[in-house]
Every structure is written in structure tokens, then in C-alpha cells.
Amino acid sequence: MPTSVNVAVIYYSSTGTISTIAEAVAKDAENAGAQVRLRKAAELAPQAAIDSNPVWAEHARATAGIPEVSPDDMVWADAVIFGTPTRYGNVTAQLKQFLDTLGGLWQAGKLADKVYSGFTASSTAHGGQESTLLALYNTVHHFGGILVPPGYTDPSKFVDGNPYGTSHVSGQGDIPVAEQTLTAARVQAERVVKFTRAIKAGLAAEN
């Protein structure tokens, strides 16, 4: 019987691009045999800012039923796949705010020895996708986590070209998530589940 794997997909999305990728990653992880929690980071922007952008406001309404992430989701997970749009080449404040609440779990060693990976989106092809994922992965090093990026481990990765994680160029929100991004999401999710299962089984055998 395959080793059970718990995967938390934790993301922030304002206008829906990252949310779409997150849902695809969650479905792909489930299809690979994992138990999955899809969780969003709490919104920090004032309601007036949200309401000023009709797409943002509509997305907030459409995803109101998705639970907000809590530290318990990190404890439950064997693997965590983070999603964030790039903000000046860095992680969004909303996701960073959640990460900053994890000090107690970090001190207790409860974030170590888990698998971590990430995905992102930007307006342009050189809008900070790589630097955003690398900034996110700095946190993984501090956790003592096991980083599992997609790399160039599948022929499709030579098409989308990002070994750091699934990424999408969204323009001004007018370029929808399409097959290339969805393929990248599947490759990444399957790779995370595969290696999480192997690592968990190996650690169990040692004990």
C-alpha cells in the first residue's frame, strides 16, 4: 500500500491567476494520490482597495468559501506548495504575513523535514518570477525543509523554461492560465507527491 501523503497548497491571489494555478496544483496532487488542503492567505488590503478593482472584488467574492490558512495546516502537511504573485520580485505581503506567524512552530522543529515547492505569476516575462521563487525558498532553508522544484525533469519544462516552479505571465490580467501553465502545474505537483512519499517512507523505515 502506498505511503499516505498530505499536501497543503497555500496561496495568495488578488485577481485570480494564482488561485487558478493553486486549484490545478491541488487537483493534480489529489490525482497523484495525496490528501490535499487548499488554503488561501488572509487578505490584508483594505476593502476600498479591493472594491476599486472590479476583477479583484469579483475574485474575492468567488473564493470566499476557500478556508484561510492556519498554522495547523503546516503541521498537518507532509508537503507544502506555496503560491504567490510577484511583488517587485518578492513574495506578497499577505503570504509573508502568514509565514511570519510560524515562529513558534519553527522553534519547535515542526516545519523541518517537510517537502516544499512554489509557483508564481507576473505581468511580464521578466517581471520577477525567478527572484520571487528564490526569495520564497530562502524561507524553506530556514525551516530545514526539503526543496523539491520541478527542474528540467520533464520535456515540457524545456517549453515553459522555469526550473524554479510553475509560473505564468498574466499581462494586465488579460492572459488566462492555459495549457502550458497547467502542464507545468501537473509536473510539479506529481514530483512533489512522488518525493514526499519516498522521503516519508524512508524516514518511517529508519524508525
Automatic annotation (TrEMBL):
Keywords assigned by UniProt, alphabetized: Oxidoreductase
Enzyme Commission code(s) on record: 1.6.5.2
Enzyme class, UniProt record, top EC level: oxidoreductase
Keyword Oxidoreductase part of the UniProt annotation: yes
Single GO term (MF): NAD(P)H dehydrogenase (quinone) activity
PROSITE patterns associated with the record: FLAVODOXIN_LIKE (PS50902)
Keyword Oxidoreductase recorded: yes
SUPFAM superfamilies the UniProt entry points to: Flavoproteins (SSF52218)
Domain of life: Bacteria
Residue ranges constituting the Flavodoxin-like domain according to the UniProt record: 7-207
InterPro entries: Flavodoxin/NO_synth, Flavoprotein-like_sf, Flavoprotein_WrbA-like, FMN_Rdtase-like_dom
PANTHER family: FLAVODOXIN-RELATED PROTEIN WRBA-RELATED, FLAVOPROTEIN-LIKE PROTEIN YCP4-RELATED
Family: Belongs to the WrbA family.
NCBIfam families (alphabetical): flav_wrbA, PRK03767.1
Record-given protein name: NAD(P)H:quinone oxidoreductase
Protein's organism: Streptomyces mutomycini
Taxon lineage: Bacteria, Bacillati, Actinomycetota, Actinomycetes, Kitasatosporales
Gene this chain is encoded by: wrbA
